[in-house]
Fold this sequence. Notes:
56% of the residues lie in helices and 0% in strands.
Amino acid sequence: MRKFKIPKQYRAINKTIRFPEDVIMEVEAAIRGKDCTFTAFVVEAVRVALENLREEDEESSG
């Protein structure tokens, strides 16, 4: 399982998504003072989650 790391900025396509206020506040606190945007943080979190799901699928089917 890959460990989550706060990512650097990159180019991307816009997509609108709604988050609970408490999640937004936690993410903003986590990236404060770092070279990271809210979007980059969320994208990295989703990538890690997808990788974890693939690994779980591989373990359960193999």
